[in-house]
Model the fold of this input.
Amino acid sequence: MLAALVAWFIGQTIVHAWDGLRHHDWTVSPLWLLASGALYLIGLLPSALFWHATMRAIGQTPGLFASLRAYYIGHLGKYVPGKALVVILRAGLVRSPGVGATAAAVAVFCETLTTMAVGAFLAAMLLAICFREQQFFVWLSLGLMVLAVVPTVPQVFRRLAQWAGVNRRNPQAAEQLRRLGYTWLLGGWMAISLGWLITGLSLWSTLRGLGIAASDNQPPLPFADLPLWTAAVSLATVAGFLSFIPGGAGVREAVLIALMQQSGFTAADALLAAAMLRVVWLAAELLAAGAFSAVGRRGVAP
Done:
């Protein structure tokens, strides 16, 4: 039933993304789009490792493969309304004699909010430094950062976990959560920041794959324009996440298109890039989830 639910909403996402593509004349370089998908999956890896490290920090003993498998398969749950299925899938897939479902779920919330907080912070910092004229987007990213950062402050997160009844389900939870301090959080921020930079390169690779150039007709540069790529994908993704719309559909594209237009891209090119980026990312997520699911069924030890 869960698989059917995920498949239905993913199908709707594909339909909407394709509608954004079929009204435009476009050419494609498949290798650039393959590179974009690979960069996206690599960009998710620091967040997956942070989730794994968080579970280890609170006394769980998941295997690295089991954590990665649960993370990438569970990522598909974001396309179902409410996003709760992400927690259900990841916690259920990683649960084992050494990993409690409640602890895994707490770690999911912690990783997700930290990833969004880092993304909003990077967007605000990069826009404020490199694109000062984009005042609306600077303030938007700052507001989103506050919404995501506050729950991840160790003292606040522990209190929220207590209010959610974690202590009732797991008597050792209070002691375990005290292990999540500022050193752990700083390490997560550093690793996840790298992930967002790599994800920014995924947007650049998509633009190259579509042959899209800015107003000066020069091919987009990977590193000279990296602040724009990173700010665009991080702000769009965080806004989509906090909208609670499945997959951030519409919201993510709206933010990405608006920021790209303000940075010299035409409206048509920005719309095309946003739609293709969703298709590429979704295809990459499906391939990764399928590969991890197939390997897991063949009995690879976690």
Q: What stands out?
A: The longest helix spans residues 267-297. The mean pLDDT is 83. Residues 28-297 form one domain. The chain has 13 helices and no strands.
